Fold each of these.
Amino acid sequence: MKATYKRSWAEPYKIKMVELLKMSTKPQRLKAIREAGYNTFLLRSDDVYIDLLTDSGTSAMSDRQWAGLMLGDEAYAGSKNYYHLEAAVQQYYGYKYLIPTHQGRGAENILSKILIKPGDVVPGNMYFTTTRLHQELAGGTFADIIIDEAHDPLNEHPFKGNVDLNKLDAIVQKYGAEKIPYVSIATNVNMAGGQPISMQNLKELHAYTRKHGIRVIHDMTRVVENAYFIQKREDGYEKKSIREIVKEICSCTDGATMSAKKDALVNIGGFMATNEWEVFEEARNLVVVYEGLHTYGGLAGRDMEAIAIGIAESVDDHHQHARVGQVEYLGHTMESYGIPIVKPIGGHGVFVDARAFLPHLSQDEFPAQTLAAELYIDSGVRTMERGIVSAGRDAQGRNYYPKLELVRFTIPRRVYTQAHMDVIAESTAAVYARRKRIKGLKMVYEPKYLRFFQARFERL
Ligand code: F0G
């Protein structure tokens, strides 16, 4: 009989420097979360053990990126690092024109101001908090056109980020193409649980929008993770490199906003990119008002250098395998404890279904907010609410009631080890074992914009 050997994957890097973690006691954590109004955003990071609040700006840079910081050309205008970044955006994504911004929402602000007129409708594959807010502030209304499967945490559709073209067509018929400045497409949809859009769907969307003269604007914050899923799940792509797939995705769109703090492996930065000269001209005018000169957009030269290097590292097949592989390892370990999670497991984190975890709480008792606080109390692991608090209110002040009421365990890139993943899953299992005794929260302070960042709660 032929012997078969197990072949594990491992991270394609080794560790050169470490940051020590602080351990805390349960009484310390109880005090900290009470003082933070049961909002994990209001905790001090010093009080956190394993930080899964976000994968945004929290990744570890490589030695080459750190070396790149030393090559910062801090000229006010025409820094050489701007030209490096421009070349990377052209080479790896294929967009023609680049406007750097301090982070993703800076790009969203400028793009929304240029393209959206009051009364416009912006269809998209599920909202993102800052993206939708900028669309609304520019006078637009967001319309969700993601497939229904995306709203069902148990549905195992391989491409839950797909657009339902019938939903899009209904909007085009109702409002007319002239009221739709663009379709807003996110790759690896954050709010759906880090779920990809397929290349086939993108191509169909591209063909449809071409026919109606509507742009596709790409929120490419997690485009490389999306490309990984296409390589693994879509017919005809298993032999293509992630690098090739990323470029093909971008070629189905007309422009992009990017938070480089995610896939591009930096702690700060973002950009807007477009293939249209007129949009670029307008953006070069506006960026000076809101961000900085068009060759730095709120970034230091060194930041732009780190992004340029990070973009190249991010499209490596081995990097992406280890990145998503670690997230999948955490998801599978949680499943082995019976913890209800969004399926398929996403690209940037594991999303726990707080309604199924705490079925005795109504959505007005903030199940996901409650669960995030309980996890912190158990072990010092910091996660984030992605449910009714994040969804906020509509223009009339009514609460949105999202179908998904989730806690996001977001994994920073290249930061934690497999042993950390075990500790996280075990802590979640401990909270799951005592779930029936957990009481909900009431909101006692609500900020006007993006309330999830600063809202405060008390225990019921
Ligand atoms: N688009 C998506 C899909 C995002 O996930 C984010 C940020 C942004 C845009 C805005 O970019 O933060 O650089 O201004 N998401 C972070 C998160 C905050 O934790 O998911 P930014």
Amino acid sequence: MSDQGILAVVSGFSGAGKGTLMKALLEKHHNYALSISATTREPREGERDGREYFFVTREKFEEMIREGELIEHAQYVNNYYGTPRQYVFQQMADGRDVILEIEIQGALKIKERFPEALLIFVMPPSADELKRRLVGRGTESMEVIDRRMRRAAEEAAGITSYDYILINDTLDACVEEMHQLIQTQHKKVSQNLDFIEQMQSELKAM
Ligand code: ADP
Ligand code: 5GP
């Protein structure tokens, strides 16, 4: 069997429940590593530097881009977000399945650079429910919520570039579906080339 971890990208409209899902997935199943992104946005209440994000200035972020420290980056509603390279590769090499919770432009860049990456798009059961969740979360002003809803309408056009959609209706069911989806990737032929090669040469030698 291959020792290399899976690279999974999880996207979805703001408020679809990605953060909630990730937390539940990591609590329930081990062997996942959630990449921590760098961002120029302000921390929300309760967020801690180095836990939810590395909160950096615009200058620092631009330096990280120049130094090649990010495997992808994108602008989202006036802020930069990007994935630090080193952690992702280290965790995958150690055999952990790495999840990038990133928006669509970044996801497409990852697919370009790493065609074996698994792209999952998390959907709310309906647009009304999406707005209810954003309002219910209570972390953004109505103005920002409206911008995020407009952004969702734009992002919806890109869903067909993903490999799978998951509907986050009942949280626990969605967590299990995501786990199954990622674990199934381990069975792909392309994920097991070393084992296949070994079997081929063993058979030849018999
Ligand atoms: P995202 O990370 O995608 O922006 P969050 O995880 O912050 O979304 O979830 C947005 C809001 O929706 C939160 O208040 C969260 O508690 C709620 N939520 C998440 N998943 C569900 C679900 N399956 N059913 C009902 N509410 C949910
Ligand atoms: P939020 O401000 O709600 O935490 O995140 C806003 C959006 O940025 C979400 O869609 C989230 O998935 C995305 N995002 C978070 N980190 C990254 C990243 O490293 N790269 C990209 N491209 N998007 C990210």
